[in-house]
Amino acid sequence: MGIILTMTMVMITSMAIVRERETGTLEQLIVTPLKTYELMIGKIIPYIVMGYVQATISLLVGLAVFDLPIRGSLPLLYGLTSFFIIASLSLGVLISSVSRTQMQAMQMSFFVFMPSVLLSGFMFPRDAMPKIFYILSQLLPMTYYIEILRGIILRGNSLSLLWAQVLSLIVFISATLGLAIKKFTKTLD
Fold first, then answer.
1. CB–CB of 18/100 below 8 Å?
2. Residues 176, 115, 44, 150: is their CA dihedral positive or negative?
3. Within a 10 A sphere around the Cβ of 184, how many other Cβ atoms?
4. How far apart are CA 32 and CA 54, in angstroms?
5. What is the predicted pLDDT for the residue at 175?
6. How far is it, in rounded angstroms, from Cα 17 to Cα 113?
7. Which string of DSSP letters, residue by residue, matches the chain?
């Protein structure tokens, strides 16, 4: 679920906004009285809905095909998934504010996606990683989402045991979205 959401949320968001810049439709939005953060939020809201659809399909496939045991609260899982979706989307918006072309956006998205898969603890245990890679993995939102998924689905953890992961995602969202808004303003003024 984390891989699907990371891949689609980061890549689609980054490429969609760059495509609008390339076609000239973004300039039409910039001349409206919207503030930069309102424009960014408006751009990511449809993708939040798409992220929930993808998460639901992933869960249904896990239940139907792999007989996935869900030991924790589904509402808590969906609530905490929203933080990961927004973190991935804010990363996509940051990539789009730095990229000039769709090809650059796609390449930067893969630059984020591959470390997310390899360093998040999805493929390899983080405890067995060299210290530098363990530290780098703490910069990736998927690291915290994998811990949330394992905690809720496999162990039945509550929010009281997952608050550190949620806090890390909130810090990531604040940093990347803030940087994206600042960079977006500087490049399009």
1. yes
2. negative
3. 22
4. 32
5. 95
6. 18
7. -HHHHHHHHHHHHHHHHHHHHHHTHHHHHHTSS--HHHHHHHHHHHHHHHHHHHHHHHHHHHHHHH-----S-HHHHHHHHHHHHHHHHHHHHHHHHH-SSHHHHHHHHHHHHHHHHHHSSSSS-GGGS-HHHHHHHTT-HHHHHHHHHIIIIII---HHHHHHHHHHHHHHHHHHHHHHHHHHHHHH-
Q: Taking a C-beta distance cutoff of 8 angstroms, is the pair 59, 146 a contact? A: no
Q: What is the pLDDT of residues 60-86, one digit of tens each?
A: 999 999 998 899 999 999 999 999 999
Amino acid type, 134: Y
- pLDDT bracket for residue 36 (50, 70, 90): confident
- Count CA atoms within 13 Å of residue 2 on its CB side: 27
Q: Give the closest residue to 182 by CA, choosing from 36, 75, 14.
A: 36
Vertex 153: Cα angle to 148 and 157 (nearest 5) = 65
Amino acid at 14: S
CB 136 within 8 A of CB 115: yes
pLDDT in tens, 110-138: 888 898 889 988 888 888 999 999 999 99
Q: What does residue 138 show for φ and ψ, rounded to 5 degrees?
A: -75, -10
